[in-house]
Design a protein that fits this description.
Elements (H helix, E strand, L loop, with lengths): L9 H10 L6 H11 L4 E4 L6 H15 L14 E4 L3 H14 L7 E4 L5 H10 L3 E4 L1 H9 L10 E4 L2 H6 L3 H10 L5 E6 L4 H10 L4 E4 L10 E7 L5 H10 L6 E4 L3 H13 L4 E4 L5 H13 L4 E4 L1 H4 L9 E4 L6 H8 L9 E7 L4 H11 L48 H5 L14
Parallel strand pairs: 1-6, 1-7, 2-4, 2-5, 3-4, 5-6, 8-13, 9-11, 9-12, 10-11, 12-13
This protein binds adenosine monophosphate.
Length: about 425
Amino acid sequence: MSFDTLGLAPALLRALADQGYATPTPIQSAAIPVALTGRDMLAGAQTGTGKTAAFALPLLQRLFVETAPAAANGKRRPRALILTPTRELAAQVHDSLRAYAKHIKMFSTTIFGGVGMGPQVDALRRGVDVLVATPGRLIDHMERRTVDLSGIEILVLDEADRMLDMGFLPAIRRILGVLPKQRQTLLFSATFADEIKKIAAQFMRDPAEVQVAARNSVVATITHRVHPVETARKRDLLLHLLAQDSRRQTLVFSRTKHGANKLADFLEKYGLRTAAIHGNKSQGARTKALKEFKDGKVTVLVATDIAARGLDIDQLPMVVNYDLPMVAEDYVHRIGRTGRAGAEGLAVSLVAPEEAPLLRDIKRLLKQDIALENIAGYEPSRPLNFDGPRPSNGKPRSTNHARRPHANGPKKPHAAANKQHRPWQGKRDQRKA
Ligand code: AMP
């Protein structure tokens, strides 16, 4: 299968060749021909599957190749809106969009919180064709009447499940309320909880459903390694593992912001070039850390789940779960940063005895057994107890038992998570990411 067979215009095919993409990913093969017809679409795909191109290419083709550009004297107003849960994802989607539009005339901008309104207002005033936005900041612009959404022809909801998890449902409803009814809506989500289906039923017209393989297929080229270790010895073990190949770029997941800072300081002290990325860091610091990591100036990036969400880091050789996530689903999101687009990846988890029940959930979700590998000198004093109670991290999120997917089917709605809306987050950009 090649991109030529998907019905894409030469200007887009050239951009793909420039990017070095030879073959479409499964979600691209499935979604592009459908989206090109102009039909609404619900697509099941997670980060790392190539989903950005799956919506960006048809969007560019429909709006900028197949239809005439706006009249020269008319004011340019946004024709497409792409909503993403986090600033980082917005920035990355925008970068990808620009790369795919390399041979097409298109003006675009990003709208997200944590940075000044001024430059965004200026960009909007000058006129743009495509907006990539997080819901909170977009609402701010709507309230100040600095954005005109009356010309939107295509709406993309990217990582819709994550937007709901982050409490953006009220904001999304408000935004949907002002968009023209005549439009194409493309909804991308890793999972289809009831709330997603409700949005689809309410705001989409007869959407085509596109789902690629099993949700966990993303991990096919990934080797999972679990090292049992006491919590107190995790940082020494991590140092030991990282020291074996200190040039290897590694993304390390920490459950808490505080833990991420402490761990980064520790690794830095032992000579590893490390940065931390989480919600208490300013936007500038986060962007800088990501850039330094991508440029190889920093070899270890310690991140919390939400901050790492959607990070576009190509072919990362190794991801480390310093703490296991409280929700098995997040394990799949985390390791989606390694083993991308066919490359081999390694997912290493440091698991304390009390975390064993979380590992059990992960194995159930992956439908895969993961062997335990003790590292000499770091073995815990007691064996992992898979039948024990799930540990609590003291946050409401840890009680989202309803989020745990059933072993044999798509994830069920996480009622608990949806009940604890954080409506204030609809008012401004998320702070916790
Ligand atoms: P995404 O899921 O959109 O975040 O994409 C994951 C990564 O795969 C990004 O770094 C893309 O640049 C890359 N990618 C997307 N489509 C392809 C493709 N057809 N071939 C190779 N790499 C791709």
